[in-house]
Amino acid sequence: MSGHSESTAIDAARSRDGDAGARIADGIRAAIIAGAYPPGTRIRQEDVAAEFGASRVPVREAIRQLEYEGLVTVVPNAGAWVSRLTLAECEEVYQMRERLEPLLLRYSAPGLDDDRLGHLGELAQRISDAGDDTEAFLTLDREFHLASYAAAQTAQLDDLVLKLWNTTAPYRRAYVASWSAEARRIAHEEHHLMVAALRDGDVEEAERVLAAHIRRTRRQLAKHPHVFDAAAAGSV
């Protein structure tokens, strides 16, 4: 094989591994967010490789990516596990979200045209209609908030906010599963208030509602420390 041909083959192999690594990372990430892999779950490379029909190389790339995102903790010479958060760490993440997401919403608001606002309104109503269905709420709530940020043109903020959302997903699941009817009602109303403020062009009010929405969750999480045991045990 000539030097050029060999280089081309190596580049092609790297490209395939990169594509496979991204696909595997997407699959594991989705499973973590969906609660299929609770915090503390061991991620065995051989099992992942068999599940995705891939070699160890893209599996290692996927694990490195998820470690960067904070979803996976790698212990040298021991293995990889789905990351755990303490209550204090989760509160820190929510403090960050409480400050960063209103800023991201401000970036996004000018691009939220009638079609996008209509979609947000539909999602807010679907969330209300979901009642006490925890999985439906979590799926639609995530879609709602990420859709409200989708028009933002930022270099780093949107990626950072998504990372923060992903790292707290297992704990949100355990917390939402324990909600009272009143807590659900308040969350639903806040979604509708955000949409109304955005429709009125009152970005400051939308930011205020969003910050309060996140802050209320943070304060309630602090009152439910059992959530961190429940999420780690995969009981929800």
Secondary structure elements and pairings:
Blueprint: H1 3-33, E1 42-43, H2 45-52, H3 56-68, E2 72-75, E3 79-82, H4 87-108, H5 114-129, H6 134-149, H7 157-177, H8 181-199, H9 203-222, H10 226-233
Antiparallel strand pairs: 1-3, 2-3
Average pLDDT, to the nearest integer?
Answer: 89
Helix content: over 70%
**Widest β-sheet, arrangement of strands:** 1-3-2
H/I helix tally = 10
CA-based shape: globular
Number of domains: 2
Low-confidence stretches: 5-15
Strand content: under 5%
Please give the CATH architecture of the largest domain.
Up-down Bundle
Model description:
The protein has 236 residues and is mainly alpha-helical. The protein has 2 domains: 3-82, Orthogonal Bundle (Arc Repressor Mutant, subunit A); 87-233, Up-down Bundle (Four Helix Bundle (Hemerythrin (Met), subunit A)). Helix content is 74%, strand content 4%. The chain has helices at 3-33, 45-52, 56-68, 87-108, 114-129, 134-149, 157-177, 181-199, 203-222, 226-233, and strands spanning 42-43, 72-75, 79-82. Strands 1-3-2 form a 3-stranded antiparallel β-sheet. β2 (72-75) and β3 (79-82) form a beta hairpin. The protein is globular.
Task: Give keywords.
globular, 236 residues, mainly alpha, 3-stranded antiparallel beta sheet, Four Helix Bundle (Hemerythrin (Met), subunit A), 2 domains
